[in-house]
Amino acid sequence: MESSNGGKYKKNWNPAEHYKEIEIAENYDKARFASIPGRVFDMLEKKALRKMLSKLPDNSIVLDAPTGTGRLAETILEMGHRVVGVDISPEMLEVAKKKLKRFGDKYQTINSDVHSIDLEKGSFDAVLCARVLMHFPLEEQISFLTAVSSYSKGLVIFNQSVITDYHRMRRYVKRLMGNQVPASFPLTKPEVGQLISGSSLTEIDRDQVLPFVSEAVFFSCRK
Ligand SMILES: C[S@@+](CC[C@H](N)C(=O)[O-])C[C@H]1O[C@@H](n2cnc3c(N)ncnc32)[C@H](O)[C@@H]1O
Fold it and tell me: What is the CA radius of gyration of the chain?
């Protein structure tokens, strides 16, 4: 695919454009979460999310940005909350709306860039920012997370890939085997600190989803 960002992003693709292809949107869930390892990972991510949202009162309102195909919005809705899902890709939102139709108006969507959502700041009981930050360099991660956090009254949940020497070795082996290395911009432990403090957040808790198999970590923070 031709890069629309002057080759700024690794893999030569732009995360704000990539998911606007219908085929990519329609295959997103299947491509990542249909295999047995994918299903286990999806289940553990949802378990981590449920734990981090467990103290929210019933019928809270949560911003899911970006919502993608509504994969994690579904978990929040099943917990009895309302969700507003924001995404820059209308194609991803179409998939999400079809999938979450059964929740009626408890799931609302907005097609927007997270940097310019037409919503009142501080109006959500919690915000979620999942599986997107790893596509950007650290400064853009801070700007993205700051934008999403601005809509929360306090609780902010996000995930990111965090690498250690063990994960670097794992990436090396995966590359030798010809496997795709997923996250373009994983963070080191000190960089996680920069992301959190740079976004004016304080960490409450973290959950390393599958420590020896995946770099993914869920973070729960307050503003
Ligand atoms: C990999 S999906 C993750 C979706 C979902 N959070 C999940 O965990 O399955 C990343 C999403 O980010 C969206 N995205 C990328 N840049 C964005 C931006 N600036 N504003 C809003 N959405 C954006 C893409 O359209 C895509 O749907």
Answer: 17
